[in-house]
Amino acid sequence: MSDDRVNGAEGGSEPAIAPQEDRPVPQHAVIAGVIPDQSPRVLREAARYAKLLGAPLIVTHVDVTRFVTYEDPDGYVHSAPIDLDLSTGEAQLSLIQDAARETLGDSDVEWSVRQLVGDPALALKHLAEQSDARLLVIGTRKRGIGESIREFFTGSVAARLAHRQPRPILVVPLGEPAGDDEDLWPDS
């Protein structure tokens, strides 16, 4: 297992990724897009598929509090925080690393942790292109009015990935599934 921080871009320009410490991006990987305090089910499913495909697993967190400022000719990406408190992204990465160690520690799948910056769908798309990924694995968000409003304006990461790149996507449901007659986006 190794821990890497990788930068991806957001916005209209093509995202860029540059592994720190000169570690190459694993090729033909399964990519798991995760967030802090998410159910370990996403990592377990990603590891299961990585094992079935004989592929390495890249556990990925996207720091949405940072954005790309410019990219060097050699591909290294410089980023800047939206908020001057840099500890938010570092704390989230630490939570992701701990969750990966706990969930995947006994796994016989080769795995690493990387952090991207910017828009989650664009950053994951670009990492998938860089690694020629075999599969993207992401979890659903918790239901609620706040998430409904966010997805109305930005779209879900799963939907945006499905329309912007050619790789298969596994969306892992979290929590209890809604009933057939239950309103998915309650008014309150």
From TrEMBL:
Residue ranges occupied by any UspA domain in the UniProt entry: 36-173
UniProt-annotated stretches for the region Disordered: 1-23
Annotated SUPFAM superfamilies: Adenine nucleotide alpha hydrolases-like
UniProt family annotation: Belongs to the universal stress protein A family.
Full protein name: Nucleotide-binding universal stress UspA family protein
Taxonomy of the source species: Bacteria, Bacillati, Actinomycetota, Actinomycetes, Micrococcales
